[in-house]
């Protein structure tokens, strides 16, 4: 008998615009449940292409020998400036396809969780994409702050007994480099299907949709402006025509989309990730509801081997958050662990990132103010650097103190200044159209995002947009507000981290944020 999965775990509306219309799961929930839980329907279902977009995370790095840092550098071949950063490709499915991926992801997760629960050490070691209850704050679950705190506490306790080493590993472009055949075998193993047997047809259909997907570029739906010649906005006229028909999508019907493909008005892409040596397609799309579960089951055998060797045999400590891993062991096991992890990552058909592989030594020292405490030392090839922190899950651990990762703070300030620049630009345009009005910025939203610690002082209401038919027979936007909801921003996250870590210095890291905010307003409003 097929296991029943509660609809509340997978039947959820999505807000983004796609190739097909949005779904009203609250109104037609029973219909979607009866279809998506029907294996025969999934076997016959034709998955639509995904929508592809890129989130670009800028990074400030040294650009010359003087130590100057920038988020841009000059390309020596073209002579043009290029952004420095990490592009993160995202692919997301139509609303019906997303529900199927979500349902089958939950099916796999339940089977995967049951296997993890057979070994407590294994279950404790895998912390990403799982709901792990917080015993101190039921019914809430643990987050990255809890996981980082537990790891740092374990390092401290071990170091007070003897010198301890910590090895940090990272898989290079994890989602983009997943081997399809290896994933298929892991999928079968989670469902307890023998090697010589096939996946059930419905599961295999989902597997093929994840591994041999096609996609269209979100940028292809944008129009170029006459002034900049660059694509900056969607075709609002076409979107309005769809909206009048009650459709919140780029096309009124699936047929219209197929006609666009036949007429070559829009391009269809396939296989964005390929093995650099064999040129064989690899990787799965980030952004699907099933992607996180597949990432975990892909490393299921790897995790078992690491836990058996590190935890059971060497009495060490292992934690994996997606592709970010740390191992804590005695000093004499440093080389053994490095060789073992390198070998097993390679056996999993993925590549270890040498650039992000780091080794640390933690030992007791006498601090002039704190007395006996512990301190971090980074182990390099030819030397050991003192007071270099171990970074894990957005935190820097020095041994005697824990701080928010400096790169995350820089990202917060970049977003703050960017938001101020945009508001200032709008304010100047408004002032040009209304010369009698004073020049000012609408600061309420900026204050809520970048200056207020206690968001209980302001009411936060979520607005839902939906289409309603008017008296002329056309559909138009209308909004519905729900009740007050708990609000949060990066400042509340930092405050919570400071409290849970019992580390006042974390909150002090943002002590200058109001001054920086005001300086940005003065600078860009008067520029």
Automatic annotation (TrEMBL):
Q: Which Pfam families match?
A: RVT_1 (PF00078)
Give the matching InterPro entries: DNA/RNA_pol_sf, GrpII_Intron_Splice-Mob/Def, RT_dom
PROSITE patterns linked to this entry: RT_POL
Domain Reverse transcriptase, by residue range, is: 1-397
Describe the family membership recorded for this protein in Swiss-Prot or TrEMBL. Belongs to the bacterial reverse transcriptase family.
What is this protein's record name? Reverse transcriptase domain-containing protein
Output the lineage of the source organism.
Bacteria, Pseudomonadati, Bacteroidota, Chitinophagia, Chitinophagales
